[in-house]
Design goal:
Layout lengths: L6 H16 L4 H8 L3 H8 L7 H11 L3 H8 L10
Helix pairs in contact: 1-5, 2-3, 4-5
């Protein structure tokens, strides 16, 4: 990750954490729904990892967020490619 502290990346972290909490999911429950480990969800929420495209799409579906919105928050560089 180029800039772990960018405001956009923080928005991704907050979105995942807040939406997970809104659904009443623990990190373990969300991880099971996504097909990954709970530690990976923690890494995403703490900005230590970026999601793969497949995981990003699954996250968007499970958390009820537009994929493009979540993608721009997770990977701000996509804005330079016209992703809206």
């Amino acid at each position: 990750m180029k800039n772990k502290n960018s405001s956009t990346t923080k928005e991704f972290q907050q979105t995942v954490k807040q939406r997970r909490a809104a659904f009443g999911f623990t990190q373990r429950v969300l991880a099971k729904k996504l097909g990954c480990k709970a530690s990976h969800v923690a890494y995403l929420e703490n900005g230590r990892r970026r999601p793969s495209l497949g995981l990003l799409l699954r996250l968007a579906k499970v958390l009820g967020v537009r994929p493009a919105t979540l993608a721009l928050r997770a990977i701000p560089e996509l804005a330079g490619f016209g992703v809206k």
